[in-house]
Design goal:
By secondary structure, the chain is mostly helical. Helix content is 64%, strand content 2%. It has two domains: 55 residues; 109 residues. A two-stranded parallel ribbon has the order 1-2.
Length: 188
């Protein structure tokens, strides 16, 4: 593989060569095997990454794991794309507020698919944050932050109506301020 060819390009080239429109678990594994053949046996590209590249390119991918975003049809895909963020406490809070507003719209319209997709996104965020919090390669302060964010997502999943009040109390607590100072307080 040339130095200028990216993993993403290898994945897309493979799909074009095989004329793949729908990709299932078996085809994802074949793509990963092709990556290993072309990049070397130490390549460890995840199936979730391959699935995300293919979805972004417009392929129908039948794959989900606990960390990847759920497959979404329109109009949900456009509306929810990029809303799940938790780079830091402020972005996690904004993300939760935005997702909560959309969740409430879907709830008032009795849109079961929409509410389920929002809940699935928040659950994925919680699991990803937990994973980062448990990763010893992540800096200790960032691990504390991700554990806190995971807690926020969990509270929303259990009792979405309580999150705003709970979050205000949490951010005013001595424990929170001791861990994060005023840097963890997002602007409204």
């Amino acid at each position: 593989m040339s130095a200028r060819l990216s993993k993403k390009q290898v994945i897309l080239d493979y799909c074009r060569a095989q004329n793949l429109q729908r990709v299932d678990w078996e085809k994802l594994r074949a793509i990963r095997n092709d990556l290993r053949r072309r990049l070397g046996p130490r390549d460890n590209t995840s199936l979730a990454y391959i699935a995300a590249v293919l979805r972004e390119a417009g392929c129908q991918v039948q794959y989900e794991d606990r960390y990847s975003a759920p497959a979404m049809e329109e109009p949900y895909a456009s509306r929810l794309k990029g809303l799940l963020e938790f780079h830091d406490l402020a972005s996690a809070e904004r993300s939760l507020r935005n997702l909560d507003a959309i969740y409430r719209e879907y709830l008032s319209a009795t849109d079961h698919i929409g509410t389920a997709l929002v809940r699935a996104l928040v659950k994925k965020g919680k699991l990803r944050a937990q994973s980062l919090a448990a990763n010893p390669r992540v800096q200790p302060q960032k691990r504390h932050e991700k554990q806190e964010i995971s807690r926020w997502f969990q509270v929303w999943l259990e009792t979405p109506d309580l999150l705003p009040d709970w979050l205000a109390l949490r951010k005013s607590s001595d424990e929170f301020r001791g861990l994060f100072g005023d840097g963890g307080v997002a602007e409204k």
